[in-house]
Design goal:
This protein is α/β, with parallel strands linked by helices. It has a single domain, classed as Phosphoglycerate mutase-like (Rossmann fold, 3-Layer(aba) Sandwich), CATH 3.40.50.1240. The protein has 9 helices and 8 strands. It has a 6-stranded mixed sheet. It starts with 5 loop residues before the first helix and ends in a 33-residue tail after the last strand. This is Histidine phosphatase superfamily. InterPro entries: His_Pase_superF_clade-1, His_PPase_superfam, PGM_Phosphatase.
């Protein structure tokens, strides 16, 4: 929300509240990840200053020439907001993927075809558990790398820390956010790390048991000081082990999550979102950003322009689909899933998991 125009924005949004639509676009020219020439498979946020392009801005002058690139960029975002009409908002979203989870390790071990059509529908294999997967040792190290890099940026670049924090309710994202942001040495006046747990920032919901969340009581017990958004149910009412979200359905809830973040009065200019590969991909689609696959533990900032327009657009929640899967370990294949001849594919859950 604009700091210098709170009254004007409040009045504007009040008028638009009953029938309004928020249109999101990515403002390019500021980050390497926005450029078509940047390869996501080799991109390293820790060696590229989060991908920030070291460039000049219209606001640059003699007073700012000795400031770091992140200090100058922050003032550029402030200026964009100051000059924009009351119905336009600019924010920087730091989209962070969780560190490696046991489900990621299992998929690599079994191969994606076999994982998708059989192993992912179980809660584990007797050695590892991947239902609402926790972090592996590698995942913990990846989150620690993000923590160390944030601290380095705070110390050397004087980066403005997030004004607000949001996190998916799945265990791997909760732990990643905690490792990444807990204990950072922030300047006085910075927003303390106390993320809001949001249902709609969870991974794309498939038949995989790693996509089912645990109950509210368990989540609260992990981090009892973290707020959970209003309306968050005790049990997971979205995952059923039978039907999966289509991309359209996931994008619908991703936009709803963004709307709630942008329409809030206290989110500030820099916003941290700790989520998942599939969900970040969905958020990027809603933001009209190029496809950019994040590795586990990676973080990318995106400068977002949100324009609230006084109209109601037709919306659809999108469809959910059922898919056939094997009832026994599939025949080994690197190309596709082949069920054993004795295991006829089904569309019913292989396990009933109550978290």
């Amino acid at each position: 929300m604009k700091f210098s125009r709170l009254t004007a924005v409040a009045l504007s949004l009040a008028v638009l509240a009953d029938a309004s639509y928020v249109n999101y676009t990515t403002v390019t020219g500021y980050f390497l990840q926005d450029e078509a020439t940047t390869d996501p498979s080799t991109f390293d946020f820790t060696s590229t200053n989060f991908g920030l392009i070291n460039r000049t801005y219209p606001i640059d002058n003699k007073k700012t020439k000795n400031r770091t690139p992140w200090e100058r960029f922050y003032h550029q975002v402030v200026e964009l907001n100051r000059r924009s009409p009351p119905n336009v908002d600019y924010k920087v979203l730091f989209l962070g993927r969780h560190g490696e989870g046991w489900h990621n390790a299992a998929e690599e071990y079994y191969g994606t075809p076999a994982w998708n059509c059989y192993w992912s529908l179980l809660d584990g294999n007797g050695t590892a558990t991947w239902c609402d997967a926790d972090l592996t040792d590698s995942g913990i190290k990846q989150a620690q790398i993000a923590h160390n890099f944030w601290q380095n940026q705070l110390n050397s670049q004087h980066i403005h820390p997030p004004d607000s924090y949001f996190v998916s309710p799945l265990t791997r994202t909760l732990r990643t956010a905690n490792i990444t942001f807990s204990g950072l040495r922030l300047l006085p006046g910075s927003t303390p790390f106390r993320p809001l747990i949001k249902e709609y920032l969870r991974e794309g919901i498939s038949l995989h048991t790693c996509d089912q969340r645990r109950n509210r009581t368990y989540i609260h017990s992990l981090f009892p000081t973290w707020p959970i958004e209003r309306g968050f149910t005790e049990t997971d009412e979205l995952w059923n082990g039978v039907t999966a979200e289509t991309s359209a359905a996931e994008d619908f809830r991703s936009k709803a999550a963004l709307d709630s973040i942008f329409k809030a009065n206290d989110t500030g200019l820099f916003v941290s979102v700790t989520s998942h590969s599939g969900e970040i991909g969905s958020l990027l689609r809603v933001l009209k950003h190029r496809t950019f696959q994040l590795s586990t533990g990676a973080v990318i900032p995106v400068l977002v322009r949100a324009e609230t327009v006084p109209e109601t657009r037709p919306t659809t929640k999108g469809s959910w689909t059922a898919s056939a899967h094997c009832t026994a370990p599939p025949v080994t294949s690197v190309q596709s899933c082949v069920c054993p001849s004795t295991a006829v594919p089904v569309t019913t859950p292989l396990v009933t998991v109550s978290l």
